[in-house]
Structure formats: structure tokens, C-alpha cells
Amino acid sequence: MEIAIKNFRTLHVDYPMVRYPKGFLGYCNGLMAYVRGRLQDWYCPKVHYVVHAPWEGIRKFCKYSESFCENYNEYCTLTQSSFPITVCTRGSKQPPTSCSYNSTLTNQRLYLLCSSKHNAEPIGIIGLY
């Protein structure tokens, strides 16, 4: 579970937001190169969410997770607050190994997976609301 918490913080929280050199052709292309390196995976995820807010502001929503998401076999919660989020979406009609991404900056609430029912930490993002 410690690895899942660390991976969430490393791969889904970017605060303050990093600026990538022009050679990466946009924020998501730079970020997803980093994500794939951290995961040591050749596969390019179709969608990846990145939150641009302090860790403590995100973490507090897993303090008490009353819902259990059976599809994920984990506790989950919907944040009360909206967050600035970049949604990295793999370009359409590209194979899973082609990693060209489009960036969309939005401000929305998060569906979070949490490490347990109480005093938990975020371990994943299911989606946006």
C-alpha cells in the first residue's frame, strides 16, 4: 500500500506545475514520458489525470471514506472541492505504444480511491465530476 500512495503522489500530483522544454511538444507529452519511465511500461495510458494542488488539500478527502467501490475493491470518495486538473488524453487513432498526448486543463471534483476506510491516503483517481 505504501508504494500505491507514493505512486499516486508522484504520478498524479504536480504542484507547483512543472514547465517542460519545447522539445516535449506540450505539458502532457513531457509528463507522460516521465510517467512511463516511472512505471517502466511501454504502454501509453489512454487517459491520465494530474492534480495541480497541494498534497494536503487532496489527501484530506480520504480521511473518512464511507463508500466502498466494488469495481476497484477499494474505498473511494468524491472530493467536496474542485481542483485544477490536467487531463492527458492519448491522441485518437493511435496505437497504445504511440505516446502523443493532448492536454486539457479543467477545474473539477475528483473521484478518489483511498487506501482504507479511515485515516487513509489517496491511491488513485477513478474519474472527474
Strand fraction equals 25-35%
What is the N-to-C order of secondary-structure elements (H for helix, E for strand)? HHEHEEEEEE
Overall mean pLDDT: 91
Characterize the largest beta sheet: strand count, sense, and whether it forms a barrel.
4 strands, antiparallel
Total DSSP E strands: 7
Structure description:
The strands form two sheets. A four-stranded antiparallel β-sheet has the order 2-3-6-7. The longest helix has 13 residues, at 27-39. It has three helices and seven strands; from the N terminus they run H-H-E-H-E-E-E-E-E-E. It has helices at residues 2-12, 27-39, 55-59, and strands spanning 47-51, 67-69, 74-78, 83-90, 101-108, 110-114, 122-128. It has 129 residues and is α+β, with helices and mostly antiparallel strands. The protein is globular. The mean pLDDT is 91. The chain has one domain (2-128): P-30 Protein, CATH 3.10.130. It starts with a helix and ends with a strand. It is 22% helix and 32% strand. This is Probable inactive ribonuclease-like protein 13 isoform X2. Residues 1-123 form the Ribonuclease A-domain domain. Pfam families: RnaseA. It comes from Mesocricetus auratus. One of its GO terms (molecular function) is nucleic acid binding.
Topology, element by element:
Blueprint (H helix, E strand, L loop, with lengths): L1 H11 L14 H13 L7 E5 L3 H5 L7 E3 L4 E5 L4 E8 L10 E8 L1 E5 L7 E7 L1
Antiparallel strand pairs: 1-4, 2-3, 3-6, 4-5, 6-7
Q: Which short descriptors sum up this protein?
A:
single chain, nucleic acid binding, Probable inactive ribonuclease-like protein 13 isoform X2, 3 helices, P-30 Protein, alpha+beta, 129 residues, RNaseA, three-stranded antiparallel sheet, four-stranded antiparallel sheet
